[in-house]
From TrEMBL:
Gene3D superfamilies: 3.30.230.10. One of its GO terms (molecular function) is tRNA binding. This is Ribonuclease P protein component. One of its GO terms (biological process) is tRNA 5'-leader removal. Pfam families: Ribonuclease_P. It is an enzyme of class 3 (hydrolase). It catalyses: Endonucleolytic cleavage of RNA, removing 5'-extranucleotides from tRNA precursor. Its EC number is 3.1.26.5. The keyword Ribosomal protein does not apply. Keywords: Endonuclease, Hydrolase, Nuclease, RNA-binding, tRNA processing. The gene is rnpA. One of its GO terms (cellular component) is ribonuclease P complex. Consists of a catalytic RNA component (M1 or rnpB) and a protein subunit.
Length: 109
């Protein structure tokens, strides 16, 4: 079960977007930046207005958070997990599979 700290500050998001790397599936984009810290990773979950109204965006942020919690622990990275508009056609299992696939593809797990 992955423990993580929330990514909250605007500067942290900008740093990951600017200096980090990314990979994507049809539902999700994962941005990551390697850190020298050995503590839990900082993770931000993002769903833009393209995903839907506030209720829909919050629903898919919660689903992404739960899917992320079910993966094994790791350290040394800060992540942004971004929902694409097609995520509304997916269920929990597809989202979990995408997050797992992208983290393994980045060699984070």
């Amino acid at each position: 079960m992955a423990n993580f700290l929330p990514l909250k500050k605007d500067g942290e998001f900008r740093k990951i977007y600017k200096l980090g790397k990314s990979k994507a599936t049809k539902n999700i984009v994962v941005y990551y930046l390697k850190t020298d810290k050995t503590s839990f990773p900082k993770v931000g979950f993002v769903a833009s207005k393209k995903v839907g109204k506030a209720v829909t965006r919050n629903k898919y942020r919660r689903i992404m958070k739960e899917a992320f919690k079910s993966i094994p622990d790791f350290t040394g990275y800060n992540l942004i997990i971004l929902a694409r508009p097609k995520i509304v056609e997916s269920d929990y299992n597809a989202i979990h599979k995408d997050i797992n696939f992208l983290l393994k593809r980045h060699k984070i797990l």
